[in-house]
UniProtKB/TrEMBL annotation, chains A, B, C:
This is 5-carboxymethyl-2-hydroxymuconate isomerase. It comes from Azonexus fungiphilus. GO terms for molecular function: 5-carboxymethyl-2-hydroxymuconate delta-isomerase activity. It comes from the Bacteria. The keyword Transferase does not apply.
């Protein structure tokens, strides 16, 4: 951990490699995590919908799953930093409303299982 | 929020745009959310498995992530309404058992970060 | 439930069908679930990043979502069994560090909605 998942709607011009580099750097700079523990992925959403009106909209969302034990303040600072990193690499398409959001979620520490293998 | 994620196995004949319109409408009709706050995506599962037997099976699942503070009754009504909407747009393939499910999960309100940008 | 989600980075040589069969069997052997209730999917991550350094890395992660009421010991045994199953079907690419992890998460039982349809 942490596991970061970036979802972005397909109407956004986003470079996933650059976006993941940016959010990983933000997570690392928080000082909360070991460098190699930060694992992220980007998912392009081909099928998406915001609301029920036929308005031009886009969204990007990051879910940060981390082991329990962080303070509320640490979680909020982390989410704000990742949101800032995401905002810096994304622009709303012309005429669109772009919603950006970041959530943090606790992983269950007691049952978390992990192994590292070297090839 | 809310963030809705529809997953469906690739052996289902589902129109993702119609399905998302249906579940967004059900979420909006609950009266719990602002119209533009309802953000959904559909993920087609090319690689899936139900159980361990070689039976013809399919499933669709919706995860509804919402900010804390809803009552258990509100969450149950919302899940039931989304399940009804999903059921209305899906049919089991001939000879298949189709499982439909809806979960609700609380987002951590204290750390949730959001921004809106206009293009 | 349970819903199992296997994510694996695209630099891994993994047979998703074999991997899902292995983790479903591990879940079934736990004795905690009905056979047909075990629903899994595999997601290949084309866009991923571990950490901030330019090192060759890979990861695979399983999220097990199950209805509340399992003991901590049951959850830990389940996660360990699924991790063992995953380890058995995966090898680290030459020169790579491969991180494997398994989490369990409680679904909200009170609002969970489900239906079964036969085609």
């Amino acid at each position: 951990m942490p596991h970061l998942t970036l979802e972005y709607t397909a109407n956004l011009a986003l470079d996933p490699a650059a976006a993941l580099a940016a959010i990983n750097a933000a997570a690392f700079d928080s000082g909360l995590f070991g460098e190699s523990d930060i694992k992220s992925r980007a998912l392009r959403l081909a099928d998406f919908r915001t609301g029920i009106e036929a308005t031009e909209r886009a969204y990007a969302h990051v879910r940060i799953a981390l082991l329990g034990g962080r303070t509320p303040g640490e979680r909020k600072e982390l989410a704000d930093a990742v949101l800032a990193a995401l905002t810096a690499v994304l622009a709303a398409p012309p005429g669109h409303e772009l919603q950006l959001s970041v959530e943090t979620v606790d992983l269950d520490r007691a049952s978390y299982a992990k192994a590292v293998v070297h090839g």
